[in-house]
Amino acid sequence: MKVVVLGAGVIGISTAYELACDGHDVIVVDRCEDVALETSNANGGQLSSDHGEPLAAPGVIRKAIKWLGKHDAPLLYRLRLDPQLWSWTLQFMSNCKDPLFWDNAAHILRLSLYSRQRIRDILARETIAFDRLSTGILTLYHNDKDFNVALNNVQSMKELGSVREILDRKGCIEHEPALEFSSAPISGGIFTPNDESGDCYLFTKALAECCRRRGVQFQFNTTVTTIERKDWRVKSVQTDKGPIEADVYVLALGSYSPLFVQELGLNLPIYPAKGYSVTVPVKDDTKAPKTSITSKDYKLVFSRLGNKLRVAGMLEFNGYDTNLDASRARVVLENALKLFPRAADRDHAEFWTGLRPQTPDSVPILGRARQENLVLNTGHGMLGWTMAMGSARIAADLAAHRAPEIDVDGFGWERFA
Ligand SMILES: Cc1cc2nc3c(=O)[nH]c(=O)nc-3n(C[C@H](O)[C@H](O)[C@H](O)COP(=O)(O)OP(=O)(O)OC[C@H]3O[C@@H](n4cnc5c(N)ncnc54)[C@H](O)[C@@H]3O)c2cc1C
Fold this sequence. Notes:
This protein has 417 residues and is an alpha/beta fold. It has helices spanning 10-21, 60-67, 83-94, 98-125, 144-159, 169-175, 200-213, 326-339, 384-399; strands at residues 2-6, 25-29, 46-47, 75-77, 137-141, 165-168, 188-192, 196-197, 217-219, 224-230, 233-239, 242-244, 248-251, 271-281, 292-295, 300-305, 308-317, 350-358, 365-368, 374-378. A hairpin with a 5-residue loop joins strand 19 (365-368) and strand 20.
């Protein structure tokens, strides 16, 4: 079977890999000159399968209102005349309630834990170097109120399959001694020992090489313009380099996915949620974290990538604006240095920004479109790398009309119809 994968981010490449393993003829199309040059390029580096908490959570709206208009807020919502944003926001708000929050958490955890199993299987047979660290993730709480809310959720998350340990301040520092120098208060933490971290770009690039060895072809510098249908099937994909025809098509265009399916009768509620990352050389090894960290108050994630420290954060709802706002990027750096003051060489910081393809419920859109030969694998939001390999296996199964290994109820576009 000939399959065209649209998009060469971590989702597109992992899907191409699974399809090639199944023996299909695969072509990957992307407008960039190589793989992982957009959102999958310099993300937070966490493989946080045991996390699973959706962005739409009880209490989030109250916090978002408090942050309105604050330029350094971790969540910035720019009021604009954008029907896509308004409709997304209404759907987001309806997901911030208790029963839905837990349904969404269950979906995310199921897919993330499956993805962890898949990535480990792949790493056992392919040589992929990506500054991998299997030292768990420590989530820090800087005030008692938020820590107590998190403690209330621990049991429910465990019942959904997440492995987590509660740590007091002393326990956090024992796990990550570099926290001793933190100028930020620490109320406690939750440690997920099976989580990992690494460089998503290096991983995607190396996996693309594995794809090449399995016969996958790449068509870079090629912009998709429309997806053409005939009756209830996709007939071809139009690009600026001409049409491409295949038996099956996989949509993995990240934040841009919804723009290409409206004419196919699909309204995918994926909104670009801009984030920033800073990568800094480690100055003093004893003062830089070796465990991947999530800071709940500062809304930051830290990953040690070799002799560098990657810090990522910020959520900005402002359409498809890809400009790097230097002042917001600097807030990421300054807040990171409050936790690890003498860890990194701030003069050599590299800043980056990317658009998370965010659904209102934080669950990706994974399933067949109205056209049975179009598979949707998109909308992975804040956890795209974490969920990539499981999503890829499921997409390959759907392409072949095979039942996926995990229950995919609740992942399709139909939930928004
Ligand atoms: C600041 C930040 C921190 C993050 N941290 C983490 C983390 O720690 N852990 C985690 O799991 N996830 C994290 N994420 C999320 C993760 O990076 C994304 O979910 C993931 O990269 C999305 O992958 P993708 O392949 O869907 O999208 P992309 O990587 O954006 O790939 C889409 C591809 O489609 C191509 N494309 C788009 N339009 C067209 C067109 N018209 N024609 C041709 N090609 C086109 C683009 O060039 C691009 O290569 C973070 C994201 C951000 C922004």
